[in-house]
Amino acid sequence: MQSENEKDLIKFVPFNSCINPSFWFELNKVKLDDYMLNDDFKDLKGFCSTCSSNNLPPILNFDYSSFKKNVDKTKIGHENVIIVEGQIKIFNTINEFNLLDKNKLIDEFGQTIWNDIKSTKALDDPNRLNRFCLIVFANLKNYVFHYWFAFPALTFPLKSYYQLRKTKFLDYFSIEQSELILENMDRFQLNFKSHQSFFAINSETLEVFSVREGVNLHNCGKKVLFGLYDPNSQSNHPGWPLRNYLALLALKCKKTEYETRNFEIVLFRDRYHGGERKSNLSLIIEVEIFNISENEEKINTIGWERNEKSQLHPRIVNMSGSMNTEKLAESAVSLNLKLMKWRIAPDINLEIIRNQRCLLLGSGTLGCNVARCLMAWGVEHITFVDNSKVSYSNPVRQSLFVFQDSIGGESKENHKSIKAAENLKLIYPGVNANGIVLSIPMPGHYVGGKK
Q1: How many Å apart are CA 75 and CA 17, to the nearest integer?
Q2: Residue 327 and residue 144: Cα distance in Å, rounded?
Q3: pLDDT tens per residue across span 31-58
Q4: At a CB cut-off of 8 Å and minimum separation 6, what does 277 contact?
Q5: Which residues have a Cβ under 8 Å from the Cβ of 347 and sit 6 or more positions away?
Q6: Which sign does the torsion angle of CA 392, 397, 403, 405 carry?
Q7: Which residue in 30, 186, 364, 440 has the fewest CB atoms around it within 10 Å?
Q8: For position 4, what pLDDT does the model report?
């Protein structure tokens, strides 16, 4: 813990983007089907959580659902996943992407945040303090994407935030108090459709309420702790969202005759480990905040993400090897098999299973279901042997046939073995399935003279 007279500049840990391959597949789709040549900014969503592993920086995740207008909170996963609103601009040429004035763009986003802080918008919806923008050039012929994220944060020249003291959450509050705060936190979140990133705590009653209520209580002389769900799990420093939150508090909270004021900030890091909820990584820091007014002459905005070489330049991703839909299906099936191995049968050798060649004698109810089970466990070489044809009664019982398969007359394509192999490939193109029309007598039955 720091001494009474010691104070350090606060180091805010910036966001890191984490992009699922499905994001690029969906971007390819919306660019071709919806955006086309329109390069206006479009709405986009990112997702961050306070439940990431220890010693990780703030991570903002993106996948195919980032393009959806309505994201069901119950389908995101863990309840502490926070939706971060942002915008994407997809350029039609690499020259337009390169010539864009990046500083001007991030300043425009910063000005929007500052306007929200000056008005009541940020108090009404503090999640507006968390914003991002993404610029992309998509080479859809080669599936190469040039992209750059910005996470706008306001800075004020010659003014800095200082950390005076740092205390562990469980040292500041007793066990009983911390449990009560967790209960009040959950109750507070139930009042909103989406998870709230920012909140306030009444120091006396430990009640959790909105930032607006917290500011009003603070301005009435009550002791209030202002908090945020901190996506950073590196224990020494707060995450990026705190920057704009402090700007809001500096402007909206009551001024004093001094040039600075002190606030206690809760860096709430909710974790689930071993089936138990833990807050041992949460911190409370005392922060020295400067006075600002709505008429600040100069406000700077920072936040462009550094690339893998820690340089302020765009990133490039080449998805040519995985943007093919069959490749994506192969990748998804492979991942599913690995999850089954990790969770159910850790000793199983998936490579041996994949290389097995299975011969199924019969393509009826049992043969169809066995084939699907084999494919579900990674078998990629399946051969059907059967001499009968698909009848009208088969599709309702035999999972590899549909009604259309029973309309084949005397053609060879109407044989069960042929149709079963074809339809298995429709389910998963990566399977090597073949059908052989052949009559095999059942054991114990009389074999006639006809071949």
Answers
A1: 21
A2: 16
A3: 888 888 889 999 999 998 776 566 678 8
A4: 182, 270, 271
A5: none
A6: negative
A7: 440
A8: 45
Q: Kindly tell me if the per-residue pLDDT of 345 is higher than 90.
A: no
* Cα 50 from Cα 270, distance rounded (Å): 6
Q: Which residues fall within 8 angstroms of residue 390, CB to CB, at 6 or more apart?
A: 401, 405, 406, 408, 414, 415, 416, 419
Q: Which residue has the tokens 């765009």?
A: 314
Q: 338 φ, ψ to 5°? A: -65, -40
One-letter-per-residue 3-state SS of the chain: CCCCCCCEECCCECCEEEECHHHHHHHHHHHHHHHCCCCCCEEEEEEEECCCCCCCCCEEEECHHHHCCCCCHHHCCCCCEEEEEEEEEEECCHHHHHHCCHHHHHHHHHHHHHHHHHCCHHHHCHHHHCCEEEEEEEECCCCEEEEEEEEEEEECCCCCCEEEEEEEHHHHCCHHHHHHHHHHHHHHHCCCCCCCCEEEEECCCCCEECHHHHHHHHHCCCCEEEEEECCCCCCCCCECCHHHHHHHHHHHCCCCCCCEEEEEEEEECCEEECCEEECCCCEEEEEEEECCCCCCCCCEEEEECCCCCCCCCCEEEECCCCCCHHHHHHHHHHHHHHHHHHHCCCCCCHHHHHCCEEEEECCCHHHHHHHHHHHHCCCCEEEEEECCECCCCCCCCCCCCCHHHHCCCCCHHHEHHHHHHHHHHHHCCCCEEEEEECCCCCCCCCCCCCC
Instruction: Report the chain's terminal Cα–Cα distance, integer Å.
Output: 91
Residue 398 vs residues 406, 417, 418, 423: alpha-carbon distances, Å: 12, 12, 14, 12
Contact between 47 and 60 (Cβ < 8 Å): yes
pTM of the predicted model as reported, rounded to 2 decimal places: 0.71
> In degrees rounded to 5, what are phi and psi of residue 13?
-85, 120
Instruction: State how far the Cα of 307 lies from the Cα of 294, in Å rounded to an integer.
Output: 34
Name the average pLDDT for the chain. Answer: 86
- Whole-angstrom Cα Rg for the chain: 30
- Comparing CA positions, the residue from 218, 300, 295 lying closest to residue 262 is 218
Calpha distance 115→120 (Å, rounded) = 9
